[in-house]
Amino acid sequence: MRKTSQAEQTRLRQAVGVYLKTAEKFIKSGEFKKALEQVEQAQKLDPKNAYAHAYKERILELQHEEAKKRSAGEILAAQDREIEQRKLAEEAERKRKEAEEKKLREEEEARLRADEGARKGREEEERKQKEKEQRLKEHLSHANRYLEEGNFEIALDETEKALQLDPKHPDANQLDTRIHQEKLEKAERDKELRRKEEAEVAKLRAAMTEIDRHVATAREFLEREEFEEAVDSVEKALQLDPRHEVSIQLEEEIRKLKMEEYLRKAEEKIKRMEADEKRRELLREIQQFLVRAEVFYSSGKFEKALDEIIHALGLDSTHPQAKELAAKIH
């Protein structure tokens, strides 16, 4: 039988209360029949209501007393018949309600059994679905991890297992397509990388041959003390490979010998200077070289600054300012 909610019970009590209050008014006015009708309406709503039963017994007693006052015979008999008829009617109504309640209970029990069976079926189906989703999720997680590691074949094995569980799963299909695509792209990148490496090796071999030629030419110029031409040759070698150790060392050697040559010439020139006037003129000339060297040094043109210093040192190899500035450049 269906259980009534708390709200329904509250509304039922309120309705029963209204009927009983109305019955109370009819009792006070001596209208016992109307009062009894109100009580019976309350009992239809709540057959087990104790207040309704008490009201009914009270009304019947009052009716009975009233009947005795009016007539001790016929009225009493009529009331007794009416009471008996009411009792019979109430008994029949009670049996009808009991039968109806029994039927409702049986129907409710059958419904509950059916609901329970359906619920267990749904739970089992949900359990299987969750288990499948969990396995599918694990396969996709493994596939993503293997993809990040570059293990395309193992990643594809995982997506294949996922698609066996659900061939139409969008994430599994998308990931499978992505792995195939990245596998192809990786193969193309590897192919291109090998091609570039082979080209780079060939280029490096050609460059090394060219570097050796420039280094050899620079050494020939160096032996003839043709320093500018030697520097040009070694710089061509360094343009091909700025980190070529032999070229770097040779460039340093050339610049050192070039500096020594300039210094030697400067010493010879100074020795030839005798007069103070010539010495002052020489210093002014040195100063001009140094001023230009400072300007070139400040603007980052170190080669030109060094040339100016070399000219200055060529005039005076012991000049402290020129030596200091030369040290800063080196």
Question: Any overview of this molecule?
Answer:
It is built from 11 helices and no strands. It has helices at about 5-30, 30-45, 50-70, 75-150, 150-165, 170-225, 225-240, 245-270, 275-300, 300-315, 320-330.
Quick recap of the structure?
This protein has 330 residues and is mainly α. It has 11 helices and no strands.
Contiguous uncertain segments of 5+ residues: none
Intertermini distance = 107 Å
What's the shape?
A: rod-shaped
Rounded Rg: 59 Å
- What is the typical, i.e. mean, pLDDT? 83
Beta-strand fraction estimate: under 5%
The number of helical elements comes to 11
Quantity of strands, as a count: 0
Descriptive terms for the model:
330 residues; mainly alpha; 11 helices; 88% helix; rod-shaped
Secondary-structure blueprint:
Blueprint: H1 6-28, H2 32-45, H3 50-70, H4 74-149, H5 152-165, H6 170-223, H7 227-240, H8 245-272, H9 276-298, H10 302-315, H11 320-329
